[in-house]
Every structure is written in structure tokens, then in C-alpha cells.
Amino acid sequence: MYNKEKLMQTLRDIKDEAATICPYVIVAQPRRSETSPQAQCLDGHLGLHVDFCGFSRGYIESTGMPVDSARNYLIEAALESDAEYLFFMGDDTVSPWKAFKILHETSQKNPDAVVAGVYYMKINDAMIMVNKNNKIYVPNVDPGQVFEAWQTGMDCMLIPMRILRKMREEEPELPFCCIASGIEDIPFIGEDNFFVHRLRKHGFRLLVNTDVQCLHMDVYTGKYTAHPNVNLDDYYTNIPITEPLTMADKRRIDRTWATTTDETSERYLKLASGE
User: Fold this and answer.
1) Going along 64-177, which residue ranges are E strands?
2) Cα–Cα dist 42/40, whole Å
3) Does residue 2 form part of some domain?
4) Radius of gyration of the chain measured on its C-alpha atoms
5) Which CATH number goes with the domain that contains 86?
6) What is the pTM of this model?
7) Residue 149: inside a domain, yes or no?
8) Which of 65, 113, 178, 185 falls 20 to 30 Å from 240 in CA-CA distance?
9) Range of the domain at 119
């Protein structure tokens, strides 16, 4: 017969040992609110919707913060760890099961780069731009490519922590992300634009691996925008995937976005005036 006391002690030892292990990757998620649905499960030990098997992992989230403040908060929190990578995932972005491992493989081959997957603006093109002959355009994002981008969103982005540490070390007086709108002569600048500009300034590249095709989901309906040839069997979600978003959905989403942008502008004008 096995000794129950020794068995339980061994299980406790394993648990205690696991608590001493540092995360290799930290998954970071800005959330709109505590009550808004999350498209995927990225925390915990069981039922994860993205494959992290074999990698020690941590999870951090922010709730109800402006997105630039949220990203700064999450980056600074991750920098307190010894992790090798920070993996940003939006709470309405659905990445395929193999997203992390595909991006990680690309990053290992390109240590001077941040690597992003493909996700689309809702009812619009892929949120990826390239610069050719000083002209910006949306490239072909069919699967099977790795290329350098001028700009992407941050909602499926794998960032080596050494890059973040260098950026902070060289310009500690600047945030990683900032949204600006209506301040002096500044047009609208998103937090992802701000981050990628700083990234280039510090000599790093931004790569896209088009084998990571994400769904940009309306978490209240399960509707989405994505590459026209996505295989929906590649995705695990908390919310049943329904059908592509329509123009009627776009009108509703645009009204919400306009309200959010007005609130952001007002916040930054107060900051700029010292309020």
C-alpha cells in the first residue's frame, strides 16, 4: 500500500516548486470592464484557448482603463518579472490555437524584432500597413508570409522583454504608449502608432507572420471580421463564432467608437492643460 501522508507531501512539494518558477511569457490583456465578455480563455491551467504547452506562463490584465494607460500599466508590471516575452492579446481578438508558438518561432529567428499576427479592423482591411517608396498601403496578408511592417495594431503582438527594457533604459521619461487627439496641432495618434514609432526609433523591426490569422470579434454577437479564407475550426472561444460582421454592424460600432474617441480627446486636453 502507498503511504497517503508521503503522497500528499510530494504533491505539496511539487506545487511549492512550481511556485518558484518564473514565467517565460506573460500574457497581457487590456479589458474594457469586468463585466464585458472575454473572447478567449488565456488564464489558468486548464481550458486555455491558445497553445502555451511546455512554456511557463503568467497572466496580467487591466480593467476599465484607457487603452494607452492600460498598455503602459501592463508593460510596466511585466517588466517587474524575469519573463522573456510579453504577449498582448485583445479581449475581442480571437487568435488561432497555434498563435503563440508560430510567433515565438519567428521571434527566435529574428531577435531584433517584435512579431505580430494579422487581425482586421472591424468591417475593414487588415490592421497592417507597409511603407514602400514613402507610401503607406495595406499589403496582401494571405497566409505563408513573414514581412516587415510599418504599422500594426498591438492586439496580437509578441514582444521580447529585452526590447522593452532597452526602450525604457534609453528613454525613461517617455511612456511606451500614448493616445493623442486635438492637442495643439496633433492629429489623432493611436497608442499602437506611438509604440511602433518608438520601436523603430530604437532600431528594432516590426514583423508580421501571416500564418497567425485572428478574428476581430464583436463579443456580444459572436460576429467577426477576418481573412476571407479563415478556417473557423482553428479557433477556441468562450463566445460561439457566428458570422462575419455587416455594414449595419459597422454603423453601430462607429457610433461607439466616436463616443470613445471624444472621451479620450477630452482626457488628454485636460492633461495637456495641467488639470
Assistant:
1) 85-89, 93-94, 113-118, 128-132, 135-137, 146-148, 151-152, 156-160
2) 6
3) no
4) 20
5) 3.90.550.40
6) 0.89
7) yes
8) 65
9) 22-272
Q: What angle do CA 70, 72, 78 make, to 5 degrees?
A: 100
Dihedral angle over CA of 101, 96, 76, 181, nearest 10: 140
Residue 36 has which C-alpha cell?
A: 464585458
Q: Could you tell me where the DSSP H helices lie in the chain?
A: 4-19, 67-79, 99-109, 161-170, 191-201, 247-272
| Pair 78, 60: CB distance under 8 Å | yes
* Sign of CA pseudo-dihedral 65, 69, 71, 74: negative
Asked whether the beta carbons of 153 and 147 are under 8 A apart, the reply is no
Residue 50 lies in a domain: yes
Give domain status of residue 5, yes or no: no
What values do phi and psi take at 129, rounded to 5?
-130, 145
Chain position carrying cell 521571434: 107
